[in-house]
Amino acid sequence: MIKVIVMGVGGKMGGRICSLVDAAEDMELVGAVEAPGHSLVGYDVGEVLGLKGRGVKVVDSLERSVDEGDVIIDFTHHDAAVKTVKTAADKKKAIVVGTTGLTAEEMEGVVRFGSQTRCVFAPNMSVGVNVILKVLASVAATLGDDYDVEILEAHHNQKKDAPSGTAVKMAQVIAEALGRNIEKVGVYERRGLIGARKKEEIGIQVLRAGDIVGEHTVIFGGQGERLEFIHRAHNRDNFARGALRAARWIVNQPKGIYDMQDVLGLKDRI
User: Fold this and answer.
1) Is CATH 3.30.70.920 correct for 2-121+236-263?
2) With contact defined as beta carbons under 8 Å apart, do 45 and 56 qualify?
3) Residue 91 annotated in active site
4) I need a labelling partner for 100 at 20 to 30 A (CA). Which of 12, 67, 168, 224 fits?
5) Is 159 annotated in the active site?
6) Predicted local confidence at residue 63, as pLDDT
7) Candidate list 78, 83, 134, 159, residue with the active-site label
8) Low-confidence stretches of the chain (pLDDT beneath 50)
9) Could you state, in order of their start, the residue ranges of all structural domains in the chain?
10) Environment class of residue 201 by beta-carbon count within 10 Å: exposed (0-12), middle (13-18) or buried (19+)?
11) Model-level pTM?
12) Which one is the CATH code of 127-233: 3.40.50.150, 3.10.520.10, 3.30.360.10, 3.30.70.141?
């Protein structure tokens, strides 16, 4: 039985992950964490999720429950990620991090501390998205510089970071396959008399509307044809299920930092 601690249980992702852990035959929810001052702190996590009491109280710091678990799952806020991973490393606990919107400094911190324990760090835990990431690298390398690359992502109107971590990852994967530096060729806004599109550009554009869970479209536009790769998330369960799959995998791995390509065994395929 894998003992799981979930961060941010009051959030949409955290709550859904808790429910799926609770329903899994090979997992046990042993810890539930929210930010200090959150209204759910002190309540039984089962009551919070609309389930029967589970005997697990929502606490306001990971330190209060970390010793109980085998693996921590974190989909919270970017400014808390480094501290969470450091705590996992200090306690030698496995951790799955799906938090997005991290600054370059925060990402460096997650990688540094994550490599000291067993850590899966990925901007998107969806199996489908990670298959597309693998495909995009192969397609970009094959098409080369003769095709323009544009990425369009759409999410709900409450999403705080832009572009999405998934769109950023897609751009990075494509840029690497094409031998480009996304920091130099990424274009995030177009307005006015901007002139002709530069050949090396990778456009990343953002939509925010309603309750869109997540949509990503990658376009390779050539002369006389275009290729489009689309992923649409119908609900958050695909991300939550991916997180559970990562948690099952990481508890049996040696120390190191991994991503979902490792979890799914995709690095040596396609």
Assistant:
1) no
2) yes
3) no
4) 67
5) yes
6) 94
7) 159
8) 270
9) 2-121+236-263, 127-233
10) middle
11) 0.82
12) 3.30.360.10
